[in-house]
Specification:
With about 200 residues, this protein is mostly helical. The protein contains 6 helices and 2 strands, in the order ααααββαα.
Length: about 200
């Protein structure tokens, strides 16, 4: 069995980027804003985080051995805000959040690229491991976008700190990365950064 983890490590970095983006967004909200929905038919950032955590726990507990939709999950309850008031509620959200991401991290740590063609099931539907990971990552990134939009709206333009490249700052960002788009083949200048997880920049 090969110990190569090139693809798995790529997933780990992208999951980390999603998590960082969510956390950098919600740190800009107070305890009340964290639990405020933009309208009655949408979810608050806290509820979305609860749902994401529940999804990760279900999907990645005994990832290779059991169906990803666990009988104990209770998906509908993930969309109910039953947290205590104030800062205790914020702490409860973050506890669930961290627990969900830890289950994912533990599952990924046990995988190598040799596992990618293996079959796992989600609600009885067979998936290769690589497809299950891609599906999960897409789900997390979808909800990251929701969280960022909610946080950006509630924080307001006067308080919001951008999570990606600020408007009008693309060239400056490229230079900070040691990247010269005019270089042959669009290459990076010597000393360019790479490899570490970061928040997304489009």
């Amino acid at each position: 069995m090969s110990a190569d983890r090139t693809v798995i490590e790529g997933f780990e970095r992208e999951y980390a980027s999603v998590r960082i983006g969510c956390e950098r967004a919600v740190t800009q909200l107070d305890a009340s804003q964290l639990r405020r929905a933009l309208d009655p038919e949408t979810n608050s950032a806290a509820v979305i985080m609860k749902h994401m955590a529940g999804n990760l726990r279900s999907r990645f507990t005994n990832f290779l051995e059991e169906d990803g939709e666990k009988p104990w999950r209770g998906r509908d309850a993930e969309f109910v805000d039953d947290f205590p008031a104030g800062d205790a509620g914020r702490a409860a959200v973050l506890t669930l959040w961290n627990d969900g991401w830890q289950v994912l991290a533990d599952a990924l740590a046990r995988l190598t690229d040799d596992d990618l063609p293996r079959t796992v099931r989600i609600r009885g539907e067979p998936h290769t491991v690589v497809r299950a990971l891609a599906r999960s990552l897409a789900h997390a990134a979808y909800h990251q976008g929701q969280i960022v939009l909610i946080a950006r709206t509630l924080a307001g333009p006067e308080h919001w700190k951008t999570l990606t490249i600020a408007r009008g700052k693309s060239d400056e960002h490229n230079r900070s990365m040691g990247y010269d788009p005019a270089a042959p083949r669009g290459g990076a200048a010597p000393g360019a950064r790479g490899g570490a997880a970061s928040s997304p920049s489009g």
